[in-house]
Amino acid sequence: MIRELPPELAVLDEDELVVQRARRDERLATLFRKWPSLASRELQELRRLYDERLRLARHFGRIRRDRP
């Protein structure tokens, strides 16, 4: 099960962020493969996971930009 991300991603350590990103990527790949036949609940899940994945990507970008 994929747990909900906290509102502030900075509270998670980098290892946990990597795990959460991988879980979302795996589930998104499954949902996209089923794209034409997604049920409405699965479509909602896909939208939520995609939004969370974008949040994670932006957070990783900030981390990399702020590193010396």
Question: How would you portray this structure in words?
Answer:
It is a single chain. With 68 residues, this protein is mainly α. It has a domain at 13-29 and 39-66. It has two helices and no strands. The model has no long low-confidence stretch (mean pLDDT 93).
Overall body shape: elongated
The helicity comes to 55-70%
Q: Strand portion, in percent?
A: under 5%
Terminal CA distance: 35 Å
Q: Residue-averaged pLDDT, rounded?
A: 93
Q: What is the β-strand count?
A: 0
Short characterization:
This protein is mainly alpha-helical and 68 residues long. The protein is 69% helix and 0% strand.
Topology:
Blueprint lengths: L13 H20 L6 H27 L2
Helix pairs in contact: 1-2
Descriptive key words:
68 residues; mainly alpha; elongated
